[in-house]
């Protein structure tokens, strides 16, 4: 094997792996928004390339009105596009998977996640959090102040929370992970 072929096969191998990972992420995100059925529908779409309205429930096991609703959502995001396929003389109305739009959708959602994490980290970094030593509930300064620095549930005296650095570090790591995923999604081309 020549050096370039070797590199090529390595690249194909690794991009295959990437694709599976990315599709797994896409499925998780979409299932969180549209429910677990969307998972089966998306799996079928990824495997088959398109899904026919006429055979939707027998192909995926999803009730056709529920499946149509999910497809409508996916269509709004341009993740599926309408098309027609002629099989044995009859015309099927199909939805084709648009992988580029799927990637764009995943990137968009990941960026939103990153923004949320960054806001939370900023808040945590700038605000003192109070903790109940009894039940471990945490309070912001405002809420702790309103309650005279006592726990609303068991009346214990609140103390300044000490795990702040650990929480910020965890958030920072989560942000870095999401950043890495965004980069990978954006580097992938179909
Ligand atoms: Zn408490």
Short account of what is shown:
The protein is α+β, with helices and mostly antiparallel strands and 190 residues long. It has helices spanning 3-34, 37-48, 56-60, 64-76, 99-126, 141-146, 164-187, and strands at 50-52, 80-87, 90-97, 129-131, 138-140, 159-160.
- Find the structural class using helix and strand composition: alpha+beta
Number of helices: 7
Shape: elongated
Query: What share of the residues lie within helices?
Result: 55-70%
| Strand order within the widest beta sheet | 1-3-2
Whole-number total of structural domains: 2
Radius of gyration: 24 Å
Question: Which regions are unreliable across 5 or more consecutive residues at pLDDT < 50?
Answer: 1-17
End-to-end distance: 26 Å
**CATH homologous superfamily (4th level) name of the largest domain:** Winged helix-like DNA-binding domain superfamily/Winged helix DNA-binding domain
Query: What is the average of the pLDDT values?
Result: 85
């Amino acid at each position: 094997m020549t050096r370039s072929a070797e590199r090529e096969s390595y690249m194909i191998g690794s991009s295959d792996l990437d694709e599976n990972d990315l599709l797994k992420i896409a499925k998780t995100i979409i299932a969180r928004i549209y429910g677990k059925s969307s998972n089966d529908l998306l799996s079928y779409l990824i495997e088959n390339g398109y899904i026919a309205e006429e055979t939707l429930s027998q192909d995926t096991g999803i009730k056709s009105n529920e499946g149509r609703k999910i497809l409508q959502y996916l269509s709004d995001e341009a993740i599926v596009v309408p098309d027609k396929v002629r099989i044995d003389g009859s015309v099927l109305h199909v939805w084709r998977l648009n992988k580029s739009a799927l990637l764009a959708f995943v990137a968009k959602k990941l960026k939103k996640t990153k923004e949320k994490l960054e806001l939370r980290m900023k808040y945590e970094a700038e605000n003192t959090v109070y903790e109940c030593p009894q039940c471990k509930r945490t309070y912001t300064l405002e809420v702790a102040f309103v309650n005279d620095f006592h726990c609303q549930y068991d009346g214990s005296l609140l103390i300044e929370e000490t795990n702040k650095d650990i929480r910020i570090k965890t958030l920072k790591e989560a942000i870095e992970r999401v950043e890495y995923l965004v980069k990978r999604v954006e580097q992938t081309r179909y």
